[in-house]
Design brief:
By secondary structure, the protein is mainly β. The chain contains 2 helices and 11 strands; from the N terminus they run βββββαββββββα.
């Protein structure tokens, strides 16, 4: 297996020598195992290979994979919940994150997942994941707004 960046896209040459353009790395367990288990997925959405431990790759390949992952990763950390309001097709959230203030909509309560302990992940209607790494570290008003979800 060989990975290389071709402009802005990632290319994989598999063990048989077949070249796969426009592949994308996907963290299989982005919140519980963020440094392990990376799937390389083809344009058709099918897994081409899985990298259990990227730290075992040679330094050049690891650097290529890390650069491709950095382009894909976007998990804002919620620091404060300003409002949660009922909408006709879900709930509108207005929050402050480590990347600034933002608003998003979740469709159902299943969009909020408990990761164990005091960690939550919220997945908005567009598929963006927002992380609350420790509910207990949120201010009292934010925790009160979350009470029905955990």
């Amino acid at each position: 297996m060989k990975l290389f960046l071709n402009g802005q896209s990632l290319t994989l040459t598999d063990a048989s020598g077949t070249r796969h353009d426009n592949v994308r790395p996907v963290r299989l367990f982005p919140l519980t195992e963020p440094r392990r288990w990376i799937s390389i997925v083809g344009e058709n959405g099918r897994e081409l290979t899985c990298i259990e431990d990227p730290s075992l790759l040679d330094p050049e390949q690891r650097q290529v994979l890390e650069a491709a992952m950095a382009k894909r990763d976007f998990v804002p950390v919620i620091q404060r919940i300003i409002t949660i309001q009922r909408a006709s097709d879900g709930h509108d959230w207005h929050v402050e994150t480590d990347r600034g203030s933002t608003a998003f909509r979740i469709e159902t309560d299943e969009s909020i997942q408990n990761l164990g302990g005091s960690r939550l992940v919220i997945i908005d209607k567009a598929g963006t994941r927002y992380l609350i790494p420790d509910i207990t570290r949120l201010d009292r008003d934010s925790r009160r707004k979350l009470e029905r979800y955990y």
